[in-house]
Amino acid sequence: MAVSTPPLAPKYRAASGMSEQLCPYRLVLEHVTSRWGVLVLIELMERPYRFGELRRAIGRVSEKMLIQTLQTLERDGLVHRDAKPVIPPRVDYSLTDLGREAAERVRDLAEWTHRRMEAVQEARDAYDQRPR
Amino acid sequence: MAVSTPPLAPKYRAASGMSEQLCPYRLVLEHVTSRWGVLVLIELMERPYRFGELRRAIGRVSEKMLIQTLQTLERDGLVHRDAKPVIPPRVDYSLTDLGREAAERVRDLAEWTHRRMEAVQEARDAYDQRPR
DNA sequence: CCAGTACCTTACTTCAAAGACAGTACTTTC
DNA sequence: GAAAGTACTGTCTTTGAAGTAAGGTACTGG
């Protein structure tokens, strides 16, 4: 049976009529900065995870979304999938070298955001208080 | 008259019933890695831009989305809006110090993605060729 | 006085990402 | 022999982000 590839964030198609096709690198950027992509990459920096383990570690992620995210990252060569042919199934996910490079940068950004959250919150409060 | 604040990416609300409210830092991360947020931050690293100028520099962005993005980033304290009370209106947008910190990291990530695009493409080709 | 520029705001619409949930196949544990 | 774990796949539905389009204001140049 044909196993269809995941949706792969068909998010930004070329606008109809417009010749402006999104440069492919934007798509990869979308993948690594996606809602669950960020969390997966950061989590996998620590060590390889099994599917269910990763799901529990991230929490509040549906199986569907986690799989979709993992498949997208696998296709992009960022995540390695190691499926052992045993029963019950055992699948280990880990970062590739490429994935680690990406994960480091994503983590930097996430860490920065976390670190500067207070400044952001102050800016927001100031913005919201300003007469508009 | 009450001017409502922009949508501000109400994307990830706390799941109803779930105590798991998305940490606020995730929202900021969403803002800076958003479709137009990335482009705005990177563009503004070069120099301040006027609204129309920025729109033309980025291209293919609707006024609505550009304003929404700028307002979100302004509220987060990443972008400074300098509206001169002249006619016709002149508004200059620039990065704050906080914004520059964010922009540098975003640009790093974007540059990495661009640089490693070839490796990603190879991985994809391999993935797509693999018997599934 | 009409057209154009600059900087927005608002309303309407579309469509894909995400959630919910059921199903598969096989095994171990209660 | 029923339930639960494991790693998925598939479908249906919701929703909210982004696009389109139009309006508004206060001017200036022709």
Automatic annotation (TrEMBL), chains A, B:
<dbReference type="InterPro" id="IPR002577">
    <property type="entry name" value="HTH_HxlR"/>
</dbReference>
<dbReference type="InterPro" id="IPR036388">
    <property type="entry name" value="WH-like_DNA-bd_sf"/>
</dbReference>
<keyword id="KW-0805">Transcription regulation</keyword>
<keyword id="KW-0804">Transcription</keyword>
<feature type="domain" description="HTH hxlR-type">
    <location>
        <begin position="23"/>
        <end position="121"/>
    </location>
</feature>
<dbReference type="GO" id="GO:0003677">
    <property type="term" value="F:DNA binding"/>
</dbReference>
<dbReference type="Pfam" id="PF01638">
    <property type="entry name" value="HxlR"/>
</dbReference>
<keyword id="KW-0238">DNA-binding</keyword>
<dbReference type="InterPro" id="IPR036390">
    <property type="entry name" value="WH_DNA-bd_sf"/>
</dbReference>
<protein>
    <submittedName>
        <fullName>DNA-binding transcriptional regulator, HxlR family</fullName>
    </submittedName>
</protein>
